[in-house]
Structure formats: structure tokens, C-alpha cells
Amino acid sequence: MKIAIVCYPTFGGSGVVATELGIALANRGHEVHFITYRQPVRLELLSNKIYFHEVHVPEYPLFHYQPYELALSSKLVDTIKLFGIELLHVHYAIPHAYAGYMAKKMLEEEGIYIPMVTTLHGTDITLVGKHPFYRPAVNFSINQSDVVTSVSQNLKESTLELFDIKNEIEVIPNFIDKRKYSTNFTDCQRSLMASEDEKIITHISNFRKVKRIPDVIQIFNKIQKQIPAKLIMVGEGPEKEGAERLCEELGIANKVIFLGNSNEIDRILCFSDLFLLPSQTESFGLAALEAMINRVAIISSNTGGIPEVNRQGVTGYLSDVGNVDEMAENAIKILSDDQTLERFKNNAAKAAMDFDIMKVLPLYEAIYEKALLAR
Ligand code: GMT
């Protein structure tokens, strides 16, 4: 199949999922064309099955906002025609499904039919998409998609609650490719980050409000009072500065390492003991799954799709949003005994295999077949 993938090329989960999916599809022999404004962060190796087409938005001083959707839909039309692309898969409804629909309609004028699969990722529904200023356009473009998928059952339910959706939403969970991680277990350099007796706790996100970064710091503060530990904070975003200040106020700045964005999270996760994800909402929690495959136990909130990934008392613990006391207590429960920690770590790695790419990829391929047949 010749497939065009539209996504955000940044460190966000939706971009990561889209990129990893495209790479896996190319490995299965499909021809994959990424169409976005920058080369996706995890797309390092271009092969003869992977193409990247950059969307340029010409700057014009008349415009207060440069029209990215217009440039994207034009680029889609040109690329689809030039390469004979058969299917369009857009990740994140805003504005990708909208631009995809416009491209579809323009192509129809020329007698070309291209089915569009839209994958909903979370914030495009629960945070941004439902805003009254976007809702009609998001609602419309979801309904105009030939196939709609969501990354968790919970996100499907939220979408049906928040929008007036006429078509079926198929749940295809996010996935993980174990083969990409296992080779790195040997080069864990734990000693770079902490001393022998210290446990390593990690948080990875885009440091937005929804991640409840102050909760991460507060949980760690409580843990480190009882167990020698270091906290590694990976990522960039608006809450980072406040987090650094909070660490200083609490007198734990020397125990918290801020690393910024990283392309090598597996190298950090492979020496981590515990992952903190106390988010306000999370449609799936890909970062937690990436931690799990690296044998890291999870302390998270019990919101959104997280309970579909982190299992209470098995791979970690889940608490109500904001209940930092309970999250810290549970973390201490896991960390204070090596045998218990080992059990949670093993369980996490085992449970992550339910999301193995080899199980999930055929689900996408089946969806593509279905979309192509609908033509
Ligand atoms: O987590 C973010 O803020 C980024 C966002 C994105 O679209 O990149 O992540 C969403 O999609 C990920 C991949 O499907 C999910 O794992 C995240 O849970 C989801 N984030 C939220 O729902 C807040």
C-alpha cells in the first residue's frame, strides 16, 4: 500500500505513535509518505520505503495567522497525485482531519478518490477539540473521515460524549516495539545519575499543565524523605521553570535532574525504577508504556485511558488525580523492598507486551483494507 501519514513532528505522543507506525509499516513493505512541517523527531533513517515531504507555509505580513491548513491540504493534493498514494492516515484531528478532508474533496474534483483514516489521540478531543471555537470543525471532520480510530476505549467514550459522532470509532491502542529497547539494556549507565543506594524515579512529558508537574515534584519530595532517591525530569514545556523553582523551595534541587527533551528516553528508562504520571487527564499514557517495556513500575493517576495501561497492584498503582499522599505512599511501598520492586518491574515489562507492535500493526492494516474497500 502507498500510505500518506500526517502528524505533528514534535516530541508529543501522537507524533511518536505516527512515526513509529510509519516506520513499522515501511518495514512490512508498505510505501510511507510523511507529510508535515518538519521531519518527525523519531524519523532518523529514511529508507527507500519512507519519504518525508515538508509543508512550507509562506510568510505573508497581511496574515495575523499563517494558514497552515491551506498549505497542508495543497501539499497533500500534490503529493498524493505525484506518488499515486492510495490512503491518507491523519493523526490528531486538529487541523489534520480538516485539511485531509479538503484535500480529499479537491482530489475528487479530478476523479481521484482517497480514503481518510483519522486517529484521535486525546488532547485533540478532551482539551483542545471540545473548545466551542473548534468543536464544529472537529465534529465535522471526524464525521467525514472514512475510518476513525481512538487510542483507548476511554478516549472513544469521551469522544462520543463530547461530540455528535455518526460513524463507528474503532479502538486501536498505542503500541511498543520491544526489539527497539532490549538491545540497550546492556548499556545502562545508572552510575551517571545516582549512587548505588539511590533509587531512580523518572518523569517524561511535555511539561504542560495537564501533566500536573508540581504533583510530580511533591510526590518525589515525600519519597526522598524515606528512601534515598533521584528524580530525572525529561522534557520541555511551560511548567518546567516553576518546577525548578519548586525544587529549590523544597530544598531538593540537588536531587532532581532536568534533562530537557531527549531522543534517547530508552537509555534513561533502562536505569529507572519508578515512573510518575500523575496527569489530570491522559487518553493513553504512551510514556508510561515506554517505561513499562523498560521494566519500570508506574505510579499514576487513575484518569482517562491510564487504567487500560497501568494495572493496579500489578504494574504499579493508580490514585485519584491530585492525591499526592497516596501516590507517594504507594511509591514507597514499591521501592522499600527489593523483591517487591523486582516483581513490579517484571510485571510491567510483561504487561507492556500486550501492546506489542506485532499485535497492533495488523489492526491498522485491517483498517486500511476496510477503508480502501469502502471506495
Ligand atoms: O500528552 C500530551 O500532551 C501530548 C499528546 C499528543 O497528542 O501528542 O498526547 C496524547 O496522545 C498520546 C499518544 O496517543 C497519548 O499517549 C497521551 O495520553 C495523549 N495525551 C493526553 O491525552 C493528555
TrEMBL record:
<dbReference type="InterPro" id="IPR023881">
    <property type="entry name" value="Thiol_BshA"/>
</dbReference>
<dbReference type="InterPro" id="IPR001296">
    <property type="entry name" value="Glyco_trans_1"/>
</dbReference>
<feature type="domain" description="Glycosyltransferase subfamily 4-like N-terminal">
    <location>
        <begin position="11"/>
        <end position="178"/>
    </location>
</feature>
<dbReference type="InterPro" id="IPR050194">
    <property type="entry name" value="Glycosyltransferase_grp1"/>
</dbReference>
<protein>
    <submittedName>
        <fullName>N-acetyl-alpha-D-glucosaminyl L-malate synthase BshA</fullName>
    </submittedName>
</protein>
<dbReference type="Pfam" id="PF00534">
    <property type="entry name" value="Glycos_transf_1"/>
</dbReference>
<dbReference type="InterPro" id="IPR028098">
    <property type="entry name" value="Glyco_trans_4-like_N"/>
</dbReference>
<dbReference type="GO" id="GO:0016757">
    <property type="term" value="F:glycosyltransferase activity"/>
</dbReference>
<feature type="domain" description="Glycosyl transferase family 1">
    <location>
        <begin position="193"/>
        <end position="350"/>
    </location>
</feature>
<dbReference type="Pfam" id="PF13439">
    <property type="entry name" value="Glyco_transf_4"/>
</dbReference>
<dbReference type="GO" id="GO:0071793">
    <property type="term" value="P:bacillithiol biosynthetic process"/>
</dbReference>
